[in-house]
Design a protein that fits this description.
The protein is built from 16 helices and eleven strands. The chain is α+β, with helices and mostly antiparallel strands and 433 residues long.
Length: 433
């Protein structure tokens, strides 16, 4: 049974209500796009400045004492334990000659192209690894070319590369981590309006962030979170080792900067030189954030992954501490609360995978539904645009995401389904065949 929603005039709101939707797009307001609890009258007065009515989740409404004692929901204000931490405030990020990229390719068409691009990334990364392990000087030319291809694909349609990268399987954790982080970085950079050259440098730098780890032992790399002080000091040298490799190969300074600064943090708590936010290059800031996000949603096998929604909440808690606030917000706006490839459960009990997001309706993505309401697999999956589906419907009839599932949950695999329906008649099997 789904969560019941009521349409409420803002002047009738009460403290403790959970606001789940607005009468205008979330990105036009300062409010958290995942919804939020109303804690005091000031927040109600703020809502009246932007909205005439909001949607309230009835099942989520609670008194504030219960809320304060519970686990904070996504996108709430920074918890009390963070108040005394080293918060660093900087002016908003300014992108010169900001580009606006319209969608210029359909999801179906661009997924086909993205599949070929990522196969080329496979080959280029493995070639670099073979050369480094053999003690040879690596040829980064092929990797530079595929990074440019990745940037071009994301410019045309960011959801396609996300979809393909999310569903690809690969046994090498370091490879998969670098590839996924590069895709996240491109989607964020595209949203921020970076030009194509900057996007290519960003993709290439993110792909190469961990190249220095090839000079370290496998045990040291695999056990990063469990190392003692001496071992961790040795582990941290991977950044300098990677920078040295790229300098020897005469790589562009912008690419080297991404590798050199991707483990630095906004408040100076990172490594190797503990520089603060105003000295970290923008591309490195993006790479550092997406690299960290990827470790949350796709950790090593012995660690439990967060769902994308949980990871987004965690990043939001770190704004202006480990990561600059508006950069966190840019990233969240670019990928949505439920990024492409996320497995979700709908309010009617059906389950599926997010294939794209609707601008301004981040809580109502396009979902490829794979089960019936009793969660039994369907013979053929179908993409449902929740924003269109809910248009004009009463709150009791609204279909929404009720839960975010970890990747691979209960055998859900989008590759096993052929998508049908008037708006999306395509098959994953056909795309990779």
């Amino acid at each position: 049974m789904g969560v019941r929603q009521n349409k409420v005039a803002v002047q009738d709101l009460v403290v403790g209500a959970f606001v789940s939707d607005l009468d205008r797009p979330w990105h036009e307001t300062p409010f958290p796009i995942q919804g939020f609890y109303i804690r005091n009258q000031d927040e109600i007065r703020s809502l009246t400045s932007y909205c005439k009515w909001v949607m309230v989740d009835v099942a989520e409404t609670r008194d504030t004492s219960e809320y304060e004692a519970s686990k904070a929901p996504i996108f709430t204000r920074r918890s009390a334990k963070r108040v005394d931490e080293d918060i660093v405030q900087l002016p908003p990020i300014q992108v010169r000659n900001r580009k606006a990229y319209p969608l210029s390719a359909s999801l179906k068409k661009e997924v086909r192209h993205s599949q070929r691009v990522l196969l080329d990334v496979d080959k280029a990364l493995k070639q670099v690894e073979r050369q480094l392990r053999a003690g040879d000087s690596p040829d980064f030319g092929p990797l530079s070319r595929v990074a440019k291809g990745m940037a071009g694909s994301v410019i045309r349609n960011p959801d396609a590369m996300l979809w393909v990268a999310r569903l690809r399987q690969h046994d090498d954790y370091s490879y998969r981590h670098s590839l996924n982080a590069a895709v996240w970085s491109l989607v964020c950079g595209r949203h921020m309006g970076l030009d194509s050259v900057a996007l290519t440098n960003l993709a290439l730098g993110t792909l190469l962030c961990h190249v220095g780890k090839l000079d370290l032992s496998v045990e040291l790399v695999r056990n990063e979170t469990m190392l003692g002080a001496e071992a961790y000091a040795e582990f941290r040298t991977y950044v300098a080792r990677g920078v040295h490799r790229l300098q020897q190969a005469d790589m562009p300074r912008a690419v080297i900067n991404v590798v050199q600064y991707h483990r630095e943090r906004h408040n100076g708590s990172g490594f190797p030189t503990r520089v603060r936010g105003d000295r970290i290059p923008l591309l490195a800031k993006i790479a550092g954030l997406v690299d960290y996000y990827e470790t949350l949603v796709e950790p090593r096998q012995e660690q439990t992954p967060m769902t994308p929604a949980q990871a987004v909440a965690h990043l939001y808690e770190l704004r202006n501490i480990e990561f600059q606030e508006d950069l966190v917000e840019h990233f969240i706006q670019s990928i949505g609360v439920y990024p492409t490839g996320t497995l979700v459960q709908l309010s009617n009990g059906q389950r599926g995978a997010v294939v794209s997001n609707s601008r301004g309706r981040r809580l109502w993505p396009h979902v490829m539904v794979m089960t019936d309401t009793e969660q039994k697999p369907l013979r053929a999956a179908q993409v449902v645009n929740l924003a269109e589906f809910n248009e004009g419907r009463e709150s009791s009839e609204v279909l929404s995401v009720s839960n975010c599932l970890p990747f691979g949950a209960e055998g859900l695999d989008p590759r096993h389904f052929e998508v049908t329906g008037a708006s999306s008649r395509w098959s994953w099997r056909h795309l990779i065949g």
